[in-house]
Specification:
279 residues, 75% helix, single chain, 11 helices, mainly alpha
């Protein structure tokens, strides 16, 4: 059975990361060394062949993630709202210096896979902020096939390091409707939540699950057939994730304090590496 420390620590950091816009939980999964294991478990779930040890592992990760979300929603949300420049500096240092560890696992650098991975992360963020704000076409009459495909793309992006499912939904025009519909559930007694809202969530939800299952299977096969290739691709995804969290995109501050927080982030990588080695 896996040790409790590593998965709960990884889940905790993933929970913290999900509080900060632009920081990917998938990236943290790669940094903490549980990404491939998560892919394997997702594939077992789709095959209905989940073992007891896998269930315990995912339960521990989920526990850490919930704790991270609860703490992050208080501490990191406060830091993000009041000191976003330095908060992003910390995560920038964390991800930047983790690249050196990820590079150690790669025997041969492949520029094509690396560039594709980086582009997949960077281009959507450039498109979403091309006019200083996210520009999307919001569909008035919903095409449910398009909604399902949008959900699948969002689900796939949730698995890939560096990408944001919510950003994909924004670019495809469904994010605001999804948030509004989910918020109606919390106030269902008001009568605002209707059958069309339920249909919207069901189709979007099935799309997300389909996307997660497909991309997890594809990545698993890629790992088995061409490990060096996918490691370069993931390295590109993680490197590309530095773009949306560049500190200067999120305010201004002291260069000295920025470098200090980048250094603290880099020291966190050493802590994560030590935890991984002890498991």
């Amino acid at each position: 059975m896996d040790s409790i420390i590593k998965p709960i620590f990884a889940g905790f950091l993933m929970g913290l990361a999900n509080v900060i816009p632009g920081v990917s939980g998938g990236t943290i999964a790669v940094i903490t060394g549980i990404f491939e294991r998560l892919l394997d478990i997702i594939n077992k779930i789709t095959k209905l062949s989940l073992k007891k040890k896998d269930f315990i592992f995912i339960l521990i990760v989920a526990t850490g993630l919930i704790i991270g979300l609860l703490i992050g929603s208080k501490v990191l949300s406060w830091a993000f709202n009041n000191y976003s420049f330095y908060t992003y500096s910390f995560f920038f240092g964390l991800i930047l210096f983790s690249l050196f560890n990820l590079k150690k696992d790669i025997m041969k650098f492949k520029i094509l896979e690396f560039a594709i991975g980086a582009a997949i992360v960077i281009i959507p963020y450039i498109l979403s902020h091309s006019n200083g704000s996210i520009s999307v076409t919001k569909p008035t009459n919903i095409n449910y096939f398009y909604l399902f495909v949008s959900g699948a793309l969002a689900g796939a992006s949730m698995i890939l390091p560096g990408l944001s499912g919510s950003l994909v939904l924004m670019l495809l025009g469904f994010y605001e409707r999804a948030i509004d519909t989910v918020s109606k559930i919390t106030n269902i007694k008001s009568g605002n939540f209707n059958s069309s809202d339920l249909l919207f969530l069901v189709i979007l939800g099935f799309g997300v699950l389909f996307g997660i299952g497909i991309i997890a299977k594809a990545l698993k096969v890629w790992f088995e057939k061409a490990r060096e290739s996918i490691l370069n691709f993931i390295l590109g995804l993680v490197a590309g994730s530095l773009y949306p969290i560049t500190p200067s995109f999120h305010g201004r501050g002291s260069t000295l304090w920025m470098l200090t927080w980048i250094a603290i982030g880099s020291l966190s990588v050493l802590l994560i590496e030590k935890v991984n080695k002890n498991q």
